[in-house]
Amino acid sequence: MNTFIRISISLILFFQLYFPLNAQEVKELFEGRINYSLKFVDKTGELNEAMVKLFIGDAQLYTVKRGKYKNEMNGKFKFRMVYLGQDTMYTQYLGNKFVMWTLSSEQEDSLLSFEIIENAEEVNGINCHLLKIKTAKGSIDYYYHPDYRLEYEDYKAHENSFWNFSVEKTGCLPLKSIVDTEEEYTELIFKEIMPMKIEDSEFTVPEGPRKKASEE
Question: pTM for the full model?
Answer without folding.
Answer: 0.84
